[in-house]
Amino acid sequence: MDPTTIGIWATAGMVTMLLLRIPIAVVLIATGYTGLILVIASRGDTFDLEQGFITANSFLGELPYSSTAEYTFTTIPMFLLMGYIATEAGFTKDIYHTARMWLGRMPGGLAVASSVGCALFAAISGSSLATAAAMGRMAVPEMLARGYDKGLATGVVAASGTLGSLIPPSILMILYAVFTDQSIAAMFVAGVIPGLLSLLIYVAMVMVRAKINPELAPPTPKVSWQAKFGSLKSTWGMLLLIVVVVSGLYSGFFTPSEAGAVGAAIAFLISLFARRLNRKKTSMALLETLKSTSMLFAAVIGAYMITSFTALTGIAADLTSWAGGFDVHPVVVIASLSALYIFLGTFMGSIEIMLLTLPIVIPIVQGLEYDLIWFGIIMIKYLEIGLVSPPVGINCFILKTVVDDSVRLGDIFKGVSWFIAMDIVTIALLVAFPEIVTFLPSLM
Known about the structure:
The chain contains 22 helices and no strands. Helix 4 (75-88) runs antiparallel to helix 15 (279-313) and helix 10 packs across helix 22 (435-443). The chain has helices at 3-19, 24-41, 49-68, 75-88, 91-103, 109-125, 128-145, 150-160, 171-180, 184-190, 192-212, 225-231, 236-251, 256-273, 279-313, 315-324, 330-345, 350-367, 372-388, 394-402, 409-432, 435-443. By secondary structure, it is mainly alpha-helical.
């Protein structure tokens, strides 16, 4: 059996295991390990299975250390710890309260405040799922109590929660940068303008809909300026944290790993100063960081296994050569990849999709000589859509678990459909004007 055929069968087996809901790390490691055995065994004049096992076992024995013992990977646990400390300290509630005070009187004010609150919390947590869960517990019940449309109330939080993937720091950006050999700092900076653009488009859509149909979002009581400025007292720490981390990265004063460590330290000190942390909450933040890091690193090991197997089959080189022969407009390729990622997003999580597709997609992108930083942001926008697309839409299911039973899952999916349409508009702008992504990194 030739290596290409082995690669095709291995891909089919991998997809089958994913559909059976087997954990992504297990799927990637099992596929890569089995594929390596078969490719090595098929290299000689005879099928030497013993040699295949020897080589694959040796590779698997070295891979867990060689693939994860990289300095750049220290960024992941540091930013995770920063987010979990902020969550345990209850700063999410302060962010939403302040956004509500300042934006509540706008058309669709509570929905606008929820979207802005999600963006600010995303800049701390780096996780879409954590953002949707934390904001959903606070924002959705209040919007429903004020008479907001169920679809709008849940849809805005589910969709705005995805901004955690795009607004730095982002775990998906770190993984993408490491696997494509790009600068993590450049990826972070590249996500700033697209992240703000996504937020502004969401807010504009909510305000227009609320203006046209006030029954979707009834007006809220007026708040005094004294109350507005008073609400800022509880958010100064988190705003300081965001400014220090982002400005340090942009100026080059911090490396991404240093920024994560500084961010975690500042979050810890601010929480202590505000007397919001105790031994139990600190232990919980450390435990959640450990669990999340372990799961991510297991998936990373599997992704490296698949990448090595793909390289041996020659599929990556064939795809690069094949893509280099294309003579099509970038819109054609982007539209094709968009359809692929949105389809995968209907039944898989973002990290799983990224680690699964990078070994195949990146050779195509390189063959077409597209900017990898630009494509990374486009890919993350695709993954954001997948987080809210039916039938899986993980963010929608998370919202369903934290809101009242009176809100049906169908209401949530109906609500996010407006935001999916806005994401498509954002992607069109990023494709038509790549400078939206590349401008800030070019200044670094």
